[in-house]
Amino acid sequence: MEIRIEKTQTPKEKPQDETKLGFGHIFTDHMFIMDYDTGMGWHDARVVPYGDISLSPAAMVLHYGQEIFEGLKAYRTADGSIQFFRPIENFKRMNISAERLVIPEIPVEDALQALHTVVEVDKDWVPHTDGASLYIRPFIFAADPFLGVRPGDKYYFMIIMSPSGAYYSTGLEPVSIYVETKYVRAVRGGMGFTKTGGNYAASLHSQDDAHKLNYSQVLWLDGIEQKYIEEVGSMNIMFVIDGEVVTPQLQGSVLSGITRKSVLELCKKWGIKATERRISIQEVADAYDAGKLDEVFGTGTAAVVSPVGHLRWGDKVMEIGGNKIGKLTQRLYDTMTGMQYGKIPDDMGWIEKL
Ligand code: COI
User: Per-residue confidence at 3, pLDDT binned at 50, 70, 90?
Assistant: First the structure.
């Protein structure tokens, strides 16, 4: 694929204090963009100065939400080099989302080339500070001006990048999670397994309710019986019950997280029993009451591995591990971030150098 590069004449000042980046506020100097038109396919790949884009008010994405996205990071190692964590998995998953939303797929090798090219142009934006990284957001949306409901004929694939710190402002402090019993995020047969904006829009009301009660995130239950645990929305969820790691199985309504998959693979390698199965919120509460709920943590690209300190289900408030990060959670966090920042050797073949 040929990629045209147009560099900015007015580069921005980079953040001075990388400990105060927050998440997703600051954008780099450039972005990647490529057009799709029915009959032409994907064409006109380019890296251009970061900036606003012009869209018709009738652009289909604004009305019917035909949009998908991904999230991955570029990390700077101690020797100054830059690397990615399993980027191929992101672009494979992007095509799975694309298929569900009738968006034209992008060959994985083209998407990887776009990623490497735009990060190379903005490589000085990859933070140098431990815990900070360049968060990368690839996305595709339907742009034709039309108010009928049908798949688009015109799309854009874009990659924007944001130097960021921890997703949760509390960093590695345990997060508190509210179990949603009124609304649902997804149902089997719906779009829960895709990364599409609508899934996140569906979560906002509950997130607001949770914030009012001083909980930072929402844990979703299944959309049919509201009994079985699904995911948190910004991350997948795992429970350590009596020494065994248990996480909801993927059955169409849960996102197939890349960190989730990596954690399961690490547990297997370490000889820790890790099971993907249905798990009800009642089972979690029972394990808590029996003193067998050892640890709870979330996994996600943005969230990495995040300890859960409190879980509230109705009136029941469970404090997990004394609201402190558990041993396995810490080991997983150290191993994942160790590989990502090049501090420990990658014996899993997960790291891809820029
Ligand atoms: C990610 O972990 O990269 C995500 O896309 C989750 C998002 C809500 C920040």
Answer: very high
> In degrees rounded to 5, what are phi and psi of residue 59?
-50, 130
Q: What is the pTM of this model?
A: 0.95
Distance from the alpha carbon of residue 195 to the mean position of ligand 1, in angstroms: 9
Cβ(106)–Cβ(157) under 8 Å? yes
Atom of ligand 1 nearest to the CA of 24: 9
Encoded tokens for 28: 């780099």
Q: Which atom of ligand 1 is nearest to the CA of 259?
A: 2
Q: Residue 307: what pLDDT?
A: 95
The confidence score (pLDDT) of residue 170 equals 74
Atom 3 of ligand 1, nearest CA residue: 71
CA of 233 to the centre of ligand 1 (A): 8
Q: Beta strand pairing status for 293-300 and 41-49?
A: unpaired
Whether ligand 1 lies within 6 angstroms of the CB of 234 is answered as yes
> What is the mean pLDDT of the segment spanning 130-136?
94
Domains of the chain: 4-164 (3.30.470.10), 175-340 (3.20.10.10)
Using 50, 70 and 90 to split pLDDT, how confident is the model at 166? confident
C-beta of residue 264 within 8 angstroms of C-beta of residue 256: no
- Please report the DSSP string for 265-298 in residue order: HHHHHHT--EEEE--BHHHHHHHHHTT-EEEEEE
Q: Which atom of ligand 1 is nearest to the CA of 195?
A: 5
Q: How many angstroms is it from 315 CA to the middle of ligand 1? A: 29
The three-point CA angle 322-181-71 to 5° equals 75
In this prediction, residues 120-143 reach a mean pLDDT of 96
Question: Is the CB–ligand 1 distance for residue 207 below 6 Å?
Answer: no
- pLDDT tens-digit map of 92-106: 999 999 999 999 999
User: Quick one: pLDDT at residue 233?
Assistant: 78
Answer yes or no: is the C-beta of 257 below 6 A from any ligand 1 atom.
no
The Cα angle at residue 277 between residues 273 and 281, in degrees rounded to 5: 105
Probe residue for ligand 1, chosen from 234, 237, 259 as the CB with the greatest number of ligand atoms within 8 Å? 234
Compute the distance from residue 302 Cα to the ligand 1 centre, in Å: 5
Q: How far is the CA of 200 from the centre of ligand 1 (A)?
A: 10
